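pinned: reference chain
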Amino acid sequence: MTIHKSSKDKKGEAVSLTTVAKAYRMLGRFDQAISTAKEACGLWRSLSQAAGIVTALETIADAQAAQGFPKASLAAAEEELSLLRASGASVAHELMLMEKVAQIASDLGEKVETLRTMEEMIKVCKNNGDKAGEAQRTLQTAEKHSEMSHAQDALRLAKEAEELFVALGDKDSEEEAKKLQTSIYVKRGQHTKAPHRSEALLALKSFVRAVEQRELDQIRAFEADLDRAASAIKDTEMSTALESLFERDPEALQFLEKQGWDLENFKSPTKIYQYPHKAFYLGTIAGGMNFGPQFRSVHPYRKDKPSDKDCVVLSCNFLPITESWQSMLAYRHGIIDAGLQSSGAFAYPPQ
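pinned: its structure tokens
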């Protein structure tokens, strides 16, 4: 570092400072690690090198986390972003540092800050005429909204991303945007709205016909179509189609197993009966406990008939889609409540 400094090699000095900061962090000298990394950030900034700032910020984040102040790293990253902007850095370097801010915020569970930064990145791309960057970041933001269960925002942005990719002629990315929409609709139980719904149903019919005719190429094509459709076919639709196929053509089961399909359940089928969701809550009301719409999440089932000695009661919990303010809470209070309600399904199995 001294040699680089004396020869006025700023880049070499910045690299050395970044390495020394990492060494201080590894030695447990966290205050020195932070101050040295910040000095490195200043040099990288003077060189308009956002990648160097990002590397130094990682050391700052690790050191502050070790000191018990993990959230301080977000403030440090936002400060560096502000200083980089003031230095007149390029849009590409600004976006690189913004990505780091969003990543740190996400790691810390700061959902509002994560989304705010990601949406700001979309605006930066749009204002600078970067259509490809705008489209990609719109899709990334849609994926983040989906992770946070913001279904409406996720769908809106996924559709916007799809339109942008169509305009760019980017078929692969357009397909990714459609896949995201399909997965969101499927999670909401709205299969009919999924972009790939009609294609998936047609593929299922073609698959059954291909199995009957033992056409391997068509079977493999269905597997690819099913992956692209992102589960636009309901499990019940798939199982019904296979049951019907095996009744007509018993040898089809062995044929598919040879192709790598796991069809053990069709050899010894198990019946699962649904206990109506509304009926379950009518029972809780009769027992003196009335749950509001946001807390009615239990969908009970029973495996085999009540008379069977191995009869098992199952409870599937579907938490309703929340409003955006609820998703911003650090903890979803309905989770424990749903679990407690499930005990009622086990205590009073459907008859």
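why pinned: Residues 272-347 form one domain. The longest strand covers residues 298-303.
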